[in-house]
Every structure is written in structure tokens, then in C-alpha cells.
Design goal:
106 residues; alpha+beta; 4-stranded antiparallel sheet; 4 strands; 28% helix; binds zinc ion
């Protein structure tokens, strides 16, 4: 999904304290035609989360999940495309293969 980080900023908020993420704290891990994967670190509560943003027939859907992985760790995982039983990877794979619209997604 070719969307600039500026546009994504309005979509992503910290799931813990609800603060919007600053641009410098957003790391784009993967960008595909209909999906963007981001790693975010909150400036105020310092929790990190992974956010998967997909665009479907009915618009843009974002799904966030907390992670213990640091930016560096998660970069390594995405770079090597390692497959593990880790939940983060499971969700990532699920969304990658997901072809339905927003209503099915929810
Ligand atoms: Zn926060």
C-alpha cells in the first residue's frame, strides 16, 4: 500500500495511552500494494506495537497488537522472513493471505 507515513499518522494511536505516535517513532517494516506493516514505539508510555494496515473494498482497516520486540529485533525478523510460531508472525501471515473485504475482516 503506497501511503506516506504522514497519512498513516492520523490512523495510528497507542493502544495503551491513546497518544498519537510521532513520525520518528514509526518504522515501516513492509509496504505492499494493499498492506503496510509498521512498528511503533510510544513516546509517552514507551510500549511498542505492530500495526497492520490493509486496504480493502470498503476502506482501510488497521489492526494493532502490542509487542515486546524492539525496532531492531522486528527488523531482523522481517528481513530474514523467518517463520516461527510467534503470534506476531502468525497474524502477519494471516493478513497477507486475507482477500476479503472489511466486513469479513471484522
Ligand atoms: Zn502509549
Amino acid at each position: 500500500m503506497k501511503t506516506s507515513v504522514n497519512n498513516l499518522e492520523s490512523l495510528v494511536k497507542c493502544p495503551i495511552c491513546n497518544k498519537k505516535y510521532g513520525q520518528t517513532k514509526i518504522l515501516v517494516l513492509e509496504e505492499e500494494e494493499n498492506q503496510t506493516t509498521l512498528h511503533l514505539t510510544c513516546e509517552s508510555c514507551e510500549n511498542s506495537s505492530l500495526v497492520f494496515i490493509s486496504s480493502g473494498k470498503l476502506g482501510i482497516v488497521s489492526l494493532g497488537m502490542l509487542t515486546d520486540l524492539t525496532r531492531e529485533e522486528v527488523k531482523g525478523i522481517f528481513k530474514s522472513e523467518a517463520i516461527s510460531s510467534d503470534q506476531v508472525i502468525e497474524v502477519h501471515r494471516y493478513l497477507k493471505d486475507f482477500k476479503g473485504g472489511t466486513s469479513e475482516f471484522i
